[in-house]
Amino acid sequence: MTSQYEQAGVNIHAGEEAVRDIKTIVSQTHDANVLGGLGGFGAEYELTSEVSQLKQPVLISGTDGVGTKLLLAIEANKHATIGIDLVAMCANDVLAQGAKPLFFLDYIGLGELEPDKVMTIVKGIAEGCQQAGLSLIGGEMAEMPGIYRSADYDLSGFAVGIADKTRLLGSMNVQEGDLLIGLDSSGVHSNGYSLVRKIIQDADLNLNQVYSGLKHSLIDELLTPTKLYYKQVYPLIQAGSLHAMAHITGGGLADNLGRMIPATLTALIDPNSWQVPAIFNVLQTAGEVTTAEMRQVFNMGIGMVLVVSPAKVDEVTVVLDNQKTAYQKIGKVVKRREQPVQYQE
User: Known HAMAP family for this protein (predicted)?
Assistant: First the structure.
């Protein structure tokens, strides 16, 4: 017999099934500091071993979502990688301040809780956590008919890392003459999708078409997950090779790199130093978007920027070359001009 709660649109049994199914996936992300498993009222993570290695331990946290990229995933019914985007948007921010990632929590709000769909989403979150060096220690699923339509859902994530206060990355370390090393993005990542969707609608683009310059269909290009930079960058943080980092999200290079530039200096970027990926050219042409606006909204092919002293550049590039990490030297830090970040046209 169907309960009144189910008639109202909430299926408790489906929620229990989903939790049961994801326990094994979640446990595969755990390190030795995770105490217990899913099912408690709060997640427990022991810090004894982490704190003992640091002189002045500082916890660094970040929270974010995926934004309207979710609408494309829902429309295409492709949910396998959207969880990677969720983790990346939080983990890359925490990493950019010099933190060792510790643990992650997620929140999933749905119009209708389908265990198979939830399993697919959580597998992506777990995959992102493994790429980011994070333990997925807890989360929340909420079935909310009336807030969300049946197929709709939303994601939020919360990442926590740890660093030594004396070795934090940031603008306080940046000096005139420092060089900017841009690490390639995997595509659009998870920013600017309101403009992406407007371009698709206004230009009547076919999501299943492979447009000129692209290797895959438009929808597959747009759902390519955000790159996680932990494995490439954390060895450089441990070695003390970096002055600062900037995760390039909404606002593009100028806004995000500007957070890392002191008031007396300017980051001078050479836009000809890297090849802009084809997906941005397709969007710019179809939407008749100016280059200035493209740069303001999108990463344009650079997902993370390392700020490095000239004395450390060779050390950094050797590590990146050995990893086969794609990068470009995209500019330098100079005495302050009109803006904290400028393009060298």
Answer: AIRS
